């Protein structure tokens, strides 16, 4: 079997490869028989497929999270790729059946992300911000480096939360260096914590859903509550100015009340945090979409960009300074 | 001196009475001389007045919070009442110079409010909700019964916060009784706590301003943080369903994200809490405005009611069932 | 045959019972054959089902309004209940074939609703309001107690219009009692009339549609026109203040121009009428939705609540003070 | 005394002429003395002026509606014209003291407007529409030809209502002729009636204010009620299709719910009526504003045009085909 | 074969006629086989149809732009007309296979449109406007008289762009004649040019799509750029007032920024141009929709009219003055 | 005379210094006398002052653009600084009377800005983008380095346009380096040209107003037209893909139609250009406002930031890594 991934096959090419079942919805066809609507995934992306006339046994076997050997043909359905399934079976214990092998990963290793983020913590000079950040980074360590940043849209992959944070820290560093008016420590502290509440809001890196706390409270308030609790543990007064500033950065980082922030930004660093959050999220989202768009074509309409579609320029206009 | 209050005088009537200086802004007239723009208050309401050619001594003497003997004439300026000052001096120690005598008060006594609210706490059957409410009512006791519910608009008087809460509890009781689907304990607990964060958001009952925490965090999140802290003190898990429901009621009570709630209501009692909050606030606000509007006339435009003006019907259409 | 209703069956349970055909849309399957998409109903609720390969005879027989004996199995399709039809035939003359037995009803009897509403009319002290209300209640009597309050969403059942009115009168009574500033007579008169135009706007209790007058004029203006006509009949001047106030309550009761009121509320009782209308409609709508939601789960998204879904708390958090 | 009108004088030119007092607001200056803020008018337009140190006698004498002899100088105050008053006295009985001589008038005579509108009534072929229009034109005859179409903005002059109606009828004729799909009778009937409710909404041609019915009901519903009443008088069923269509035209003519129509246009003629209403109002409003703007300059911001200012092109670009 | 057109057949009537393939989307059915979703057209309108089990040969043969002989039956599917295909083959060379015979056409001939537009150019008195209009009319002559005015909605037929322009010129003439304040030359010049950029924005009269320039620049800016270029060619300064006025008319003609105009109208003629554009587009769009709606029924919801549906009155209410 | 600037004086401190008259509005006081409302400026900022009882000679002498010797006292008026004028005279020819000495300047020298921008032009690899940028930079050279970026708000100082461009280029470089997907050449070209139309839209660096072209066309379209013209001069086809992309960047850079872009961003670099424009403008605007706000206080409400006020943290929280 070749080492090709699911997105390496051309339309109408036969394929045979191991993939992860990301989703498996059972439905009734109009003839009354059951079928499974699959989403298969490996690290090259996700593709959907229909499995007709599924037996009860097959339905119970082909569950999300399982690795399967998929044989079939890559097709196109109304402009979107799909797989025509010819044969499907579970991977055996002697085959590559570890689901984590098929999950999309952040493009930077866990160790590198951790080291670069820790490096930035050293640059947080204010002792209260520094201690709070370290306390919460420690407390939520495992989930923080494993969780995606979202169910779908931007950074929806394992490690996506840390990668989004890291990417924003790089932007934050460039901006803080360019403009003397910005308090770098405050901006770094806010950046590291701003989305950490997603470790409570979301259920984890696979089959990601919203928790009850996520639905009823939301990640913005969830991490704010943890900051206040961290203050109690660290015997820092939660009402002193620097702590209020940090909480304000977290609470205001969606920028607009309509986007779920209970307050709008009222300090400079809060406004900047909001804008670099948007900038990184937009570039990451468009980067993923354009990767799957043909040169010279428009993409599908993108929900997270107000339903706009984006044009991918022709190959001969590519930036020659980039590899 | 008669016992008339400031709103008892007719236009063009001479007056002499003790009043509280609520605000005293020093400005420069076009002739270069200083004048003080006063807001005088007693329990009948507030009226503005200008004090021309103020000396430095007078400016330092006539500070907000002082009680003064005011002699002058009640006039009308562009449809609004004002006082023409003929004479002004501080009240002496032998005169009624206690500022609290001139502050508008809730129409129900502190003792009665406390007793009726405590009575409702008994009806909160769920033990976690009951303990959290009692803990926070105890912790914020003094401020809760003394603070206004707002800087201006509705319930902007001493005790206004408790009075607004009490008034909503009465509505909550009627609604919970009428609709079996409503969980009364949850609705009562949410009602008592929903605005308690204003004891941190606002500076106090006189010369009320927003604190830094009020401006940067807001009363909704401030009390939510206290609920989480109360859970820690009371060894209640902050993530169990009943605690999430209660926090959700508080966080969602402004109804819309645009009004500063970080989540919209997603349980029935949260929706009801939001609506009875609006209902009580509207009636209280209109009640105050119509009290100062002539029968058969429209009021000024009311900022808190989207800039609408309201008509006060003629006296002969008054509800004969009300005294 | 058991006395179970359609919503009493579990998923995958076989069923056999009499139900009403609420809707029967004939469509073409992809194989070119016709099928009927049914909505079956009894007093426990409504469930959809597909009837494959329908003959012309069956299409002509299974019309909305007919009672049928349905044999099949309760299934689940993409989270929504549906019925797999195994056998279907019309009810005979010796079976319970009266369609009214299967229509959802207001939870209060017609007699009780009429008596309680009449009781309130006695409390309308202003003679003009009293006479107008009695005139129109009399004129529209039959339809008023039989019609639903809407095509779908809240109070979409036989008698729903009167039940919604009654429920609001109970709220109106509680509110009028609590706040002395409210004119109870005006609020009661406005409440009784506010939705009476729906007797012209809608076609009736079964297979409810909008009439041409409903589509081109709307229920708000339709009942306002009747008030003016009532004045002519009763020789009350339509331009005197009390009549203007009552018409204003009706015209303004949707609260916002965007919701179809030609004027926004400009008297206190109009604002209150609008708000208790919303409160009753919301609770009634959520009550129905949560009834069909599993404890511990979120409901479907509800169109009439801005597309929000609502969480039904676990059973062990139920209000113990309610049966 | 010259026959110059108030807008014929240059800045800094001395003036002496008879004018009408359109408004006279008494205020207190900062020195405590009273002054009158006048709006003077003649048929060339309106200009404001301040009358300092007004005595009680002068205040009682210089009332709105009086004609006065004004001597002073035309000045400019922050870009707006104003008059510096040097002398002011009431016109005597031997001088031109009839207020109607100073009111702006529609540019077409009453007789011509009446004749042209009546001519159009003949072209309304549907007998019900024809009879309703004639009935209401007759009933509201005096006010219809005397009232302005608004308090300010477009057509705010005596006869403005009839003139606006006439101007729209001319547009309606051109449009109906160009597009065969339009029912001319319906469009003419709707045009004649669409704003007739302003004869109840407004108080009259001088010192125009909103009546209580105008504030609480609004001109759209007020004329709709009269159409229904006309049907009763003329024994036309109010619920037959042609009457519903006509009422729909009136109710929908503001186009959007936000602009106070209780329904949006749902028939072609209703949409056209709305659009030609807007077209005539815009041209009339801009026509008035540009008349007082210097060539080559932008006008003030115009409230009725969403706050936009408009540019008046240079004189040498004038349309040479117009005189 | 009869000369009936596709919209002349009744539901369930057998049909056999030549039609144009307007669109042909190939899809996979749930059984895995391919089918073609056709849109057939002739001058009576467009109807969709499904062609099941399409072979690769048939897919390659039945391309958009081809004329076919269609045999089948007219049916109704969920309220919309559709064709059940019984037989389909390409038209031979001896049959009427010219696609232009089946395209909807403007109701006025090309020659008549050209002559009437040219006539209006003579009435543009300002020499710069006149020369620019003639230059661009000449430059874009072929496309201008052949293109539709839109992909769908109003004027989506061959010659639609010129017909829309002509229709607006007729309105412009009526309006300019009625209101002396309007500069007719400017309004005519703006009208002729306002949508000419669509000859670059759209791909042509058949199988109309947006070009890359259309998607990235838009027709408003595309024609503005051509005006500036025309000035260079004609040695007219692009910055003199009259040229700025004309460019402003074009740029502002969508009326609102939200509709894609980079500036809002700030001269009278720009406002008028915007409004008559809307008026003609609305009437044309509704005219088409109502033509396919049964008398006494509501149409489908119309996307281009904010999703409103429109009522077509009964036949006996038709305007008797129109044939 | 000391070398103190106008913002170096404390409240109530006497001052004597040369300043520039930035604005001088003549108004009438309530006593009928004229006064001049001045805005004085030097490089520390702008302060207003009133000059009472101005003679005609003084009015003609004290024109905007003149340098004057100002003696007076710095005061505070309703929270804003103002000057009480004691003496005022024009600067003589022997005194520092060159107005450019008093204009705020970009914090980077003209030479340094020019060199850094030219350096970036070298990095634009695509030859068409490179040639167009160089052509237009050359054509508009003088104005580009002298003009402000706005009348008020951000970068409203001499050289502000080039400084804003330079500052964005620095951000663009950081972003392009961090994300491989970005075409750096395109982003740099778009950044340099995006606001260059302001050299036509605005009148110049002193007494900045909008030109007629600025008001009627706007800077976005004005520079787009120049790009097309540059193509003609350089014999580059205006319709090839790379030119369309560059024009799209310019046209879309306001991000939303509501902000005046005729198209929204539909390529990645256009979205990024829009976001870094916003980021630089926000930081620059806040930087200026916070500079004049006391530590520990909130600023005035800032129009360009949706009316939000911003908090300046206490001095002891300053970033210790910045000087």
Automatic annotation (TrEMBL), chains A, B, C, D, E, F:
Gene3D superfamilies: Hypothetical protein af1432 (1.10.3210.10), Nucleic acid-binding proteins (2.40.50.140). CDD domains: HDc, YhaM_OBF_like. Keywords: Exonuclease, Hydrolase, Nuclease. The keyword Plastid does not apply. It comes from the Bacteria. GO terms for molecular function: exonuclease activity; nucleic acid binding. InterPro entries: HD/PDEase_dom, HD_domain, NA-bd_OB-fold, NA-bd_OB_tRNA, YhaM_exoribonuc/phosphodiest. Residues 161-282 form the HD domain. GO terms for biological process: rRNA 3'-end processing. This is CMP-binding factor. It comes from Liquorilactobacillus vini DSM 20605.
